[in-house]
Amino acid sequence: MNLINTYKAGQRYMKLCPTDKQLAHSFPEVKIINHIKTATKYLPPIVISLLVWQYYMPAPIAVTAITILFTLSLPLQGIFWLGKRALSPLPLNLVDCYNQLKGKLITKKVIAENGTEANTLTFESFMKIITLAKLHLGDYFGQDNDTSTL
Predict the structure, then answer these.
(1) Over the stretch 17-64, which tens digit does the pLDDT of each residue have?
(2) Distance (Å, rounded) from C-alpha 100 to C-alpha 126?
(3) CA 42 to each of CA 33, 39, 61, 127, 134: distance values in angstroms, whole numbers, following the listed order
(4) How far is it, in rounded angstroms, from Cα 44 to Cα 40?
């Protein structure tokens, strides 16, 4: 895999992945995306404080430069991890959930039955199905709506 393709897949996956608290318990992507967004929000003040620290404290310039480079690389590392996760194959325990959600979306005529899909299911395709299911089936798409037992 190419480094740039992995990074672009991470950016796509970050935009695609729903950020629900219900999914945060099952998928670490939600937490990683929140951390990346928080880091990009607070990185400029951190870098400025590191530069001020360099100015007022007699710290070696190499230590400050390495610290700043490491700080700036944290969101990039998160996006790269998301890209690796998006392109990795779906584990067998999630394939059944994927097929159930896809079946529900086919019965509601949201997606076509004969859609072209790759031989290996990836986390990116699973998140696409989850996003569609959340949009068309509601928040609790994984549960059956059987209220006759009440």
Answers:
(1) 988 888 888 889 999 999 999 999 999 998 998 888 888 887 788 888
(2) 11
(3) 14, 5, 22, 28, 31
(4) 8
d(CA 123, CA 98): 10
Residue 127 CB contacts under 8 Å (≥ 6 apart), including other chains: 13, 16, 17, 18, 29, 86
The residue with tokens 């970050």 is 14
Give pTM, 2 decimals: 0.80
First-to-last C-alpha distance (Å) of the chain: 52
Contact 90, 127 (CB under 8 A): no
Q: Over the stretch 130-147, which tens digit does the pLDDT of each residue have?
A: 888 888 877 666 555 544
Show me where the domains of the chain are located: 1-88, 89-141
Ramachandran class of 111: left when φ > 0, alpha when ψ lies in -120 to 50, beta otherwise: beta
β-bridge partners, 89: 122
The residues that bridge with 122 in the sheet, in sequence order, are: 89
The stretch 93-102 carries a mean pLDDT of: 88
